[in-house]
Inverse folding.
């Protein structure tokens, strides 16, 4: 029996599954973030190691891996380190970004292959495929010059709104009160000190992105500013999706759009304004329910790489069952 690894690595965490060649998930592990724009090579390798080892520890009977597919970028040095540690030839490892695993996961979860994938987690990007099958993507430029509509983008704007409330530019309304309580930021000085850390320990990108779930909670409770902020995030994501639809000449087509990333866990307060804007631009567009994770899709691609027909119903059902069991889909 052969075994493969699927990995889903993002800005804040890395999910890893160990899958048997019949699609049965036998191990699951988790590590830290792997975005090389924000962590060192050592940090990247540690996160991958932790996730891989966690999955392997779940199935000590597994002695050899056949293939690894990860949805993250990996430089040659780290690739060789990971390959050596797990006794894998370099050609048996692929690092392919988030869009293709999301597409494969959608096929497993919904039986449909999307034309467009909208990713909004710690960062954001949009990818699509035209009639010729060639991919095209926009966004993903990082938190300084990109990541519009992401959790980080939302977090920055929520904290900016608190500054404006503390200094009197805006009312100290329900949003400000609820968020300062949730973040334990009692006043302007506390907020500034927390954000910049006295120049020693400023808030990390992940910590700023972690403000977004508080905004989502307030939006779902009906807070006007929180709803406005998530609608603005939806607008930014729709702008990226519309650009990809236009560049691929899909505006008049029945475009299938897959959502993926933690921001969409907010639910309809962000997915509905996003759907409205995309459908206004491309009337035939249909949005699939948001995915929690793409690691199952990465595992399916790894199975395909070793010659397994992953479209067989039993293999797909096993992958789907394993993903649901571990709350990965």
């Amino acid at each position: 029996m052969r075994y493969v690894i699927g990995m889903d690595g993002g800005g804040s965490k890395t999910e890893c599954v160990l899958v048997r060649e019949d699609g049965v998930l036998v191990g699951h592990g988790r590590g830290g973030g792997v975005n090389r724009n924000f962590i060192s090579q050592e940090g990247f390798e540690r996160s991958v190691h932790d996730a891989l080892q966690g999955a392997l520890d779940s199935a000590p009977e597994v002695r050899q891996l056949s293939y690894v597919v990860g949805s993250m970028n990996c430089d040659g040095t780290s690739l060789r380190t990971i390959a050596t540690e797990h006794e894998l030839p370099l050609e048996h490892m692929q690092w392919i970004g988030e869009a293709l695993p999301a597409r494969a996961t959608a096929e497993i979860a919904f039986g449909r292959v999307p034309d467009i994938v909208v990713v909004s987690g710690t960062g954001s990007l949009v990818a699509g495929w035209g009639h010729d099958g060639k991919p095209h993507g926009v966004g993903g430029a990082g938190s300084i010059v990109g990541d519009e509509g992401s959790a980080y983008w939302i977090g920055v704007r929520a904290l900016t709104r608190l500054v404006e409330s503390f200094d009197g530019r805006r009312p100290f309304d329900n949003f400000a009160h609820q968020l300062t309580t949730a973040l334990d930021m009692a006043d302007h000085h506390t907020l500034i000190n927390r954000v910049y850390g006295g120049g020693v320990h400023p808030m990390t990108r992940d910590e700023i992105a972690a403000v977004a779930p508080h905004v989502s909670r307030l939006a779902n409770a009906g807070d006007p500013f929180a709803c406005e902020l998530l609608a603005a995030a939806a607008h930014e994501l729709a702008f990226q999706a519309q650009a990809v639809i236009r560049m691929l000449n899909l505006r008049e087509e029945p475009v299938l759009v897959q959502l993926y990333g933690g921001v969409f866990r907010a639910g309809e307060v962000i997915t509905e304004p996003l759907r409205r804007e995309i459908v206004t631009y491309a009337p035939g567009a249909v949005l699939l329910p948001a995915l929690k994770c793409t690691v199952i899709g990465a595992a399916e691609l790894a199975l395909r790489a070793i010659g397994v027909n992953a479209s067989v119903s039993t293999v797909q059902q096993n992958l789907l069952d394993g993903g649901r069991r571990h709350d990965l889909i």
